[in-house]
Amino acid sequence: MSTKNQTRVRFAPSPTGYLHIGSLRTALYNFLFARHNKGVFLIRIEDTDKKRQIKGATESLIATLKQFNIESDEPIITQSKRLEIYKKHAENLVKSGHAYYCLCTPSRLEKVRNQQESQKQPPKYDGHCRNNDLMPHASCLMPKPHVIRLKVPQEGTTKFKDIVRGEVEFDNKIIDDQVLLKSDGYPTYHLANIIDDHEMKISHVIRGEEWVSSTPKHIILYQAFGWAPPKFAHLPLLLNPDKSKLSKRQGDVAVEDYLKKGYLKDALINFIAFLGWNPGTNKEIYTTKELIKDFKLEKVQKAGAVFNVEKLDWLNSLYIRKLKPSELVSLCQPFSKNKLTDSVTKLAQDRLKKLSDIDELTSFIFQKELTYKPDLLIPKKSDKQKTIKALNLFHSNISKCQGDAVCDAEKIRNNLDDLREKNNLTRSEAFWPLRVSLAGQKNSPDVFDIISALGKEKTAKRIKTAINKLK
RNA sequence: GCCGCCUUCGUCUAGUGGCUAGGACGCUAGAUUCUCAUUCUAGUAACAGGGGUUCGAUUCCCCUAGGCGGUACCA
């Protein structure tokens, strides 16, 4: 296969903590774009800031992505293992006159910045070392703390075409002489990013909107190296309900948090895919496979999208309702302190917004003793006598039931409904008390489903208890 | 401050130089029902503001406002 026109994209997180829900979307869009174009999806770890490293973050990032079946097609590249490469490229840039050594101390830089701010000028490196003649080939002999800065042209403009946003143009005058190599020998994001994207033959850089204003620096770097830049697509931000950038203050931002709360991975992916993208049709329930088929960068939105948990809840409950009984049980089990069965989780299937709601909705099944007021057993348009009559009727019928006959909700439904009719009771006179006697609460699932979940013994016992309560 | 980006129902969004501006979530009401949930039906609600261009602008242009992002030896 020719690599010339092959689509190659990368997701390049910094290991500074949990995987952010916005990062998951960036990864997803990259992944979908790669698969849609039969290209390659890569992961690269951008760990060039020693101060912000968090132990285990890389592993957790990769593990979380893997849960969503997002994995690198080629070995993962880690920037901290490539320090020599970046350094060499930076020195070459000095040799070719596109960069220079800078000896300015942090305190001088701060002073310059403060001065500029007080004069209401945009803060920018003042070019103090820009025209020094420190010889490039003697880098190892350089005075100790030094950095390498990019020599940004002072005239003209730098523009690029963004797939999402169209033409974007910047005046070179306002672009700072960006540090490329820090005094600790590590590259900055800008340098490492460009070198790696080039060496990894990245065709499309798909990243968050926060990068648009540094893109001109990147373009200038590509020009300095004499490399062709990739195509760019800057994704809109994910927002809090108040439209500020999605942050921890106003809810969960870690993907793990959502998983822990009982959101299904498929629902999360479906939801997140539609935050900033849509196929242009009314279809909005999508499997990953379908997303791959329909995903196009051109349909990505320009404006930020509010992360609307209510819609996520709806989507999640939709996915839960589509689950097979056995799938539902195994997905719910980790969220429950009870031993779940098909017939129990079935009670909750229509009402679960999140898997973690399972115990709240089914705990009455497992309770030894139900606590409710006897009055609750009597329906509004009925009375005590009728209620006792109904309960007695059902009690003796169920007690006489053979073996697991009560386990079939449909059979028991027909059976008890016949009984009810023969005894001239309305459904509400008959089934309301029965349901309350079994659930102990005003609202609950279908009474016959409850019977099949409870089984014969417990059902009979609970009805008996209810009758006693009324006496 | 400076630079850049953005702006259709509360939210996610479709859409076009001429439409009753469409869908989804939410909300409200009704139907079904032993209650709740589900399901079904109906309703609710938007082109940020001001100028142009045009026979006609939500759509094209300009301005304003607001929001967001960036402005580091962080990514």
Percentage of residues in strands: 5-15%
Q: Order of helices and strands, N to C?
A: EHEHEHEHEEEEHEHEEHHHEHHHHHHHHH
Structural class: mainly alpha
CATH architecture of the domain at 374-470: Orthogonal Bundle
Short key terms for the protein model shown above:
RNA-binding; Arc Repressor Mutant, subunit A; mainly alpha; 18 helices; 43% helix; 12 strands; 471 residues
What would you say about this model in short?
Strands 1-2-3 form a 3-stranded parallel β-sheet.
Describe this structure in words.
The chain is elongated, with a radius of gyration of 32 Å. Strand 1, helix 1 (21-36) and strand 2 form a beta-alpha-beta unit. Among the domains are: 332-366, no CATH class; 374-470, Arc Repressor Mutant, subunit A, CATH 1.10.10. The mean pLDDT is 93. The chain is mainly alpha-helical. The N and C termini lie far apart (83 Å). Helix 12 (342-349) runs antiparallel to helix 17. It has 18 helices and twelve strands. The strands form five sheets. It has a three-stranded parallel beta sheet. A three-stranded antiparallel beta sheet has the order 4-5-8. A two-stranded antiparallel sheet has the order 6-7. It binds one RNA strand of 75 nucleotides through helix 4, strand 7, strand 8, helix 5 and strand 12.
Secondary structure topology:
Elements: E1 8-11, H1 21-36, E2 40-45, H2 57-67, E3 77-78, H3 83-95, E4 99-102, H4 106-118, E5 147-150, E6 157-162, E7 166-171, E8 179-181, H5 189-199, E9 204-208, H6 215-225, E10 231-235, E11 238-239, H7 255-261, H8 265-273, H9 288-294, E12 305-306, H10 309-321, H11 325-332, H12 342-349, H13 358-366, H14 384-400, H15 409-422, H16 427-439, H17 447-454, H18 456-470
Parallel strand pairs: 1-2, 2-3, 9-10, 11-12
Antiparallel strand pairs: 4-5, 5-8, 6-7
Helix pairs in contact: 1-9, 8-10, 11-12, 12-13, 12-17, 14-16, 14-18, 15-17, 16-17
This protein binds one RNA strand of 75 nucleotides through helix 4, strand 7, strand 8, helix 5 and strand 12.
